[in-house]
Design goal:
single chain; two-stranded antiparallel ribbon; globular; TIM Barrel; 359 residues; 10-stranded mixed sheet; DNA polymerase, domain 1; 2 domains; alpha/beta
C-alpha cells in the first residue's frame, strides 16, 4: 500500500493493510483503539495483539513520527512549546496553552467559559509560503507540507502527556506553522481522523482552523458544511495596507475574500472569527477600525484582536493598551463583536506568529 506512518492510515486503509497480511478485521479495531484511545506509541505497547502482528507493525509501519527535541515553558507556566524533529530531519513547533477559569471568563466568545481549558495549537506545514511580513513562520519560507499523520501525531503526543497528568485537550486550533488551506487535503484528513467517533472522538466544534484567505478553498470548505470553526487572518481593512502585510492579498483582494466569507455563513449558518494582529500606528488606527466595521456590517462574525507578537524579521511594534481599547470600542459601537486577547508565551516565542523551527 506504500504507507509507512501509522497515523497516515484511515481506518479503512488499516483494514485493507491487515487483509493483505492475512489478519482478521477485528485486529484493525484493536489497533485503532490502541492508537486513539490508549495513545500507545510503539508496537510493543499493543499487548492485545499477538506477538507476530506486533512484529509486522514494527517492520512495516513507523510509529515514532515526531521526536521531541526541545520543550520550553513560559515564565507564568501557562504556555508550553515543543520542537519536534520529523523523520526527514526537518522540524515543527506545537504549542499548548493553559487557561484557568478566570482567564477563560475573559474569553467569552469561546465555548466552555468558566472552565479550565487546555488549547493545543498545531502545525500543518514546515514553514509557510504565504510570506506574511510579521510572521516568523512566513519569514522562514516554505519547506514542505506535513502528512495527515504528522498533523494527527501532534495531538496524540499531547493527549498522552496530559492524560498522565489527569488532564485532557479541550480545544485544537490549527494556527501553528503553515497555511492549513494550502495543505487542505492532509489537514482535513487529519481532522476527520481526530473526529472519528470510534477513534479519538474529538468534537469538530472544538476545532478551529485558520486561513490567510485562500478564496477557492474557503468556497470548498463552505460546500462541505463542516462543523469545524473557521478563522480568517484579516489584519487590514483596505487592499493597499493588507497587501503590504499579507502578499496573498494581491491574488485574493478583500472584496473577493469577504464575498467568500458571506457565502460561507450563508451555506453553514456558522460564525466566522476574524483575526487581527494590532500593529502600533499601522492597523490599530480609528480609520482602520471604522473601515473594518463597514466591511463586516451584516456578517455573522467576531473580531479576535491581539497586540502584535514580536519577530526578528519585522520592525513593527505591538499596539498600546489604550489604542487597542479604542479600536475595540469603535467596533463594538458599530455592532461588531470584538475581543482583545491577552498575549501568551512571548518569552518562549510561543505566541501567534512566532513559531519558527530551525535545527
Amino acid at each position: 500500500m506504500g504507507f509507512s506512518l501509522i497515523y497516515d492510515l484511515s481506518f479503512s486503509e488499516l483494514i485493507s493493510l491487515l487483509a493483505e497480511w492475512g489478519e482478521p478485521v477485528y485486529r484493525a479495531r484493536q489497533i485503532w483503539q490502541g492508537l486513539y484511545h490508549n495513545f500507545w506509541i510503539a508496537p510493543n505497547e499493543f499487548t492485545t495483539l499477538p506477538a507476530s502482528l506486533r512484529l509486522k507493525l514494527a517492520k512495516f509501519l513507523e510509529f515514532n513520527i515526531l521526536v521531541p527535541t526541545t520543550t520550553l515553558q513560559s515564565s507564568d507556566g501557562d504556555t508550553v512549546k515543543t520542537l519536534f524533529q520529523l523523520n526527514d530531519g526537518k522540524a515543527i513547533e506545537t504549542v499548548l496553552m493553559k487557561y484557568d477559569p478566570s482567564a477563560v471568563l475573559q474569553l467569552a466568545q469561546h465555548e466552555g467559559a468558566g472552565k479550565s481549558r487546555r488549547t493545543l495549537c498545531i502545525s500543518t506545514q514546515v514553514g509557510c509560503a504565504m510570506g506574511c511580513v510579521f510572521c516568523a513562520t512566513g519569514q522562514m519560507g516554505f519547506k514542505r507540507h506535513l502528512s495527515s499523520g504528522e498533523i494527527v501525531a501532534q495531538v496524540i503526543y499531547y493527549a498522552r502527556l496530559l492524560r498522565d497528568r489527569g488532564e485532557v485537550i479541550s480545544n485544537v486550533v490549527v494556527m501553528g506553522m503553515g497555511e492549513p488551506f494550502h495543505n487542505y487535503d492532509n489537514t482535513m484528513s487529519a481532522i476527520d481522523r481526530l473526529n472519528d467517533p470510534d477513534g479519538y472522538n474529538f468534537g469538530a466544534r472544538r476545532v478551529t482552523i485558520s486561513t490567510i484567505g485562500l478564496v477557492p478553498v474557503i468556497h470548498q470548505f463552505a460546500a462541505e458544511k463542516r462543523q469545524v470553526n473557521l478563522a480568517i487572518s484579516l489584519h487590514a481593512a483596505d487592499d493597499v495596507l493588507r497587501t503590504s502585510m499579507l502578499p496573498v492579498n494581491k491574488r485574493y483582494p478583500i472584496d473577493e475574500l469577504l464575498e467568500a466569507c458571506h457565502d460561507y455563513v450563508a451555506a453553514t449558518g456558522r460564525r466566522i472569527t476574524f483575526e487581527w494582529a494590532l500593529v502600533n500606528e499601522v492597523n490599530d488606527t480609528p480609520e482602520q477600525a471604522h473601515l473594518l466595521a463597514n466591511l463586516l456590517k451584516g456578517l455573522l462574525c467576531h473580531v479576535n484582536a491581539i497586540p502584535l507578537n514580536p519577530t526578528l524579521g519585522y520592525s513593527g511594534k505591538a499596539t498600546t493598551r489604550q489604542r487597542a481599547a479604542k479600536f475595540k470600542e469603535i467596533l463594538i459601537h458599530s455592532g461588531i463583536p470584538c475581543t482583545i486577547r491577552l498575549r501568551r508565551g512571548i518569552d518562549i516565542k510561543g505566541g501567534c506568529g512566532q513559531l519558527m523551527s530551525i535545527i
